[in-house]
Amino acid sequence: MDFASTLKDRVQVIEGILDGYLPPIEGPQAHVIEAMNYAVRAGGKHIRPLLMQETHKLLGGQSPALPAFMAALEFIHNYSLIHDDLPAMDNDDFRRGQPTVHKAYGEALAILAGDGLLNLAFETASQALTLDDSPKTSKALQILAQKAGIYGMIGGQVVDIQTEGQSIDLETLVFIHQLKCGALFEAAMEIGAILAGASAEEEKAIVAIAADLGLAFQIQDDILDVTSNLEALGKASQADAALGKNTYVSLMGLDKAKEKVSRLTDRALTQLRTLPQSNAFLGSLILALCGRAY
To answer: What parts of the chain have a pLDDT lower than 50?
Structure first.
């Protein structure tokens, strides 16, 4: 298997799914729709829908509801990035190598574009109920809402903002990372498993893999903020230190942060191998995400 070419092909499929759910740029509200499209079509990695799809494949799923959930989760992720980049939050000028939405369209429209994508996410996910009205689809919708909300991504973001410029312990930092980043990874893989009809044991294993992957991914992001640059990242480096943010690197040092990523990656892959099913691409994807350079 050529991982790079397979990844490219699967990302192209996901982009086609997203295009199918994005609204056309027309009508009196065309400007905000254009900003929404700008954010989603900015060339991201589409990690979360990819993880959902590959987990679903791993467990032999064939749910017609899967594409709607893949698109919904990516819309939620992109709305969160639009809002994260705002002056009131991280105040970033670049995302994925191009101006952030508030730089391209203005602050007010960026806020509304983020709101629009969040609402579009649940419009999209609710369509899944018309394709498969089984209890597993309802459960997947509940997971999507919970992991995106105050007990998931938003909750992590709140604690992150509240602790800027303060000294915190490692337990608090891990809490922030697990919710701010890890929650959507867990949503991706758990929804993929649920829609595939996973057993309780399989679902538990998938959530554990996703939790380790999400934390490793965020720690690697902390590392790259110190070691990389705008050209490689597509966004400003050294931004965390400038904002007084707590990171794994600032608390534990660069070497220990790298060791933690390695341990979490190994544990996720070990857990993946305990499942009776196999998906070589998913294993390679986990390795690539945790060892990425951008």
So the answer is: none
